[in-house]
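Translate sequence into structure tokens.
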Amino acid sequence: MKKRLFTGLSVGMLLLVPVVAQATLTTYNDRSAFDAAVGSTPIINFEAQQKNEWIGGTDYGANLTVGDVSFTQLNGQLEVISPAWSPQNSNFLYNPYNPNVPQTFVINFASKVSSVGMDLAWAWGYWGTGGMMDIALNNGESFTKYNVSGPLYYSGLPLGFVGFSSDNPFSSITIIDPSHSTSIDNFAYKTSPNPEPATMLLLGTGLAALAGARKLKKQQLPA
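Result follows.
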């Protein structure tokens, strides 16, 4: 009897050990494919953040917050460019060219999100017509985006697109840009509607352990 009780309790304790589910990161190079997979999302196009049309750009220092999203340049400053000065004839957010330091661009969300898509490029630099940026999420996932469009002011290329979705929600993105001039437009994101997979798995195993312990206790009661 004691052996059965010990075995049941051991199984219950094992079930209560946290289990981390393997997350899946999906990337997109095309906005239409991203939209089809993710569905409707809020979009930040930075039009409302452009205040000084006549000088070409509005300076926000190192940080700009738009709704639930905060954009931060850790080693530079941020500007919203006027369409009059933009090769794309539209507003976009960028950090002025700093030839000495690769830029670290951080995007934080007020609540966890599962998907992000944006037009991404670099405005200055001397890499011809393409480059790369390292993108890391604070859930531990990361990837490198190759062939980032640029430089906008030399090539006239449109901003390229990068999108990604994860089943392990995240609240922060870090972009390492060796071109020194990250440019972002039409920033889309989707708030995560569900608990994280690891949380759901832990809850399920915990409930199973409690149910097993209760059943075992009933078996030990005298008839």
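Note: Residues 2-20, 198-204 have pLDDT under 50 and may be disordered.
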